[in-house]
């Protein structure tokens, strides 16, 4: 790809992402959905204004690394550990139920075991950002159900990333067995625990040294350098790079300059993260959703149904008095960013084809669209 073509492509990607994101924000939805739709429209399957390229894909991968770093920075490890038994029960139900339903649906549809495992794993994630935004807009963040669902959603995000590491490892080995799953799971957990423990021990000393530097941008450069280093180590030992990026965010979230790092990473994320979501949308072929052919529409509708039911079932895990089950179950439904990351990994590693990819994207978008009005309706009730 020539430089001029790449630059023009970036202009179109950024402009389409921001315009579509703004439109979604104005109708009460998350900007991520607009960026996805923008990708579908400007991509090769519709208008063909931007074509996929290796350079654009690299920029998208940098975007997802920055995204997981930012999510890690916004996560409070101590709050995560104090999420409590109630949130933990809901989180485990929010993983087990969707996984079982997704796996069963894929097997019923005649998919191979590895594909069925991947589909089930895709349904385990919960987008804590979308639910938190809706609850914040409603002024309900201190509600008992809100505290439970946010704690459970954060746990689901962390466990979802571990599951992603396991699934990615299974794809790379091409072997599905309990021993393989256990080995990859142990590797992911050991990496996370060691990285976070050592990082929390030594990161403050490193940041004191960085704070003495006079060169412009030292703090954000060394923070991103730390993120990329852990992402590279994670990739080197056979895990997804985003696991390392997320661990780096968790570590730096425990340091004194956290607020400054968060503030300075936002402009970087605003540039690179939309490229990821637009490229995700660009890979969707609307023709795959042809209801009169062998498309993905039927499977997408069935997948969305089990995605919703699986997370609603997690609400049944509420046992504390004074906590409403429906807001908890509905708050767990949106898949958001982590679900899209799963879809991208599956397509990149050829676990799923374009048809299944389109079905997963439809599921993520539908599960995200329905939650804001549903939660608002629940909280309007006396």
- What share of residues is helical? over 70%
Q: What number is the mean pLDDT?
A: 80
Class from helix and strand fractions: mainly alpha
Name given to the CATH architecture: Up-down Bundle
By DSSP (H or I, 4+ residues per run), the number of helices equals 17
- What sort of overall outline do the alpha carbons produce when their principal axes are compared? globular
Distance between the termini: 59 Å
Rg, Cα atoms, Å: 20 Å
Domain unit count: 1
Major sheet characteristics: none
- Low-pLDDT ranges: none
Q: State the total count of DSSP E strands.
A: 0
CATH topology: Na+/H+ antiporter like fold
Strand residues, percent: under 5%
- CATH class category label: Mainly Alpha
Order of helices and strands: HHHHHHHHHHHHHHHHH
Please, could you describe this protein's structure?
- With 382 residues, the protein is an all-alpha fold.
- The protein is 76% helix and 0% strand.
- The protein has helices at 3-26, 31-42, 54-74, 77-81, 84-108, 113-122, 128-137, 144-173, 178-211, 218-236, 241-252, 258-282, 297-314, 325-331, 336-348, 354-369, 371-380.
- Helix 3 packs across helix 12.
- The protein is globular, with a radius of gyration of 20 Å.
- It starts with a helix and ends with a helix.
- The mean pLDDT is 80.
